[in-house]
Amino acid sequence: MPRGKPEIDTEKCKGCALCIQSCPKDILRMSDDFNKQGVPYATCIDDDACIACKFCAIICPDMVIKILQYA
Ligand code: SF4
Ligand code: SF4
Predict the structure, then answer these.
(1) Cα(9) to centroid of ligand 1, in Å?
(2) What is the pLDDT, as a whole number, of residue 22?
(3) Structural domains for the chain
(4) Which of 30, 41, 45, 50 could form a disulfide with 4 if both were Cys (CB 3.0 to 4.6 A apart)?
(5) CA-CA distances (angstroms) from residue 33 to 1, 15, 26, 54, 64?
């Protein structure tokens, strides 16, 4: 199984939460605090569990998620 790590540009996240619903590993959450846009942002709670499927990056309307993929 591939391994990955989501890198989220939290300042550009608009807080739509679409990525949270898309993650098959259920490792994305909305933050308790706010970015400079005044909205909660997406964050990963368990990088080790990411399988680099890229569903989150693909569904993000603003393309603010990049997936680092390991072998
Ligand atoms: S790449 Fe897949 S497993 Fe990793 S955070 Fe995104 S949706 Fe979840
Ligand atoms: S889909 Fe993109 S804009 Fe929406 S919460 Fe996730 S990272 Fe933020």
Answers:
(1) 15
(2) 98
(3) 3-70 (3.30.70.20)
(4) 50
(5) 33, 11, 20, 25, 18
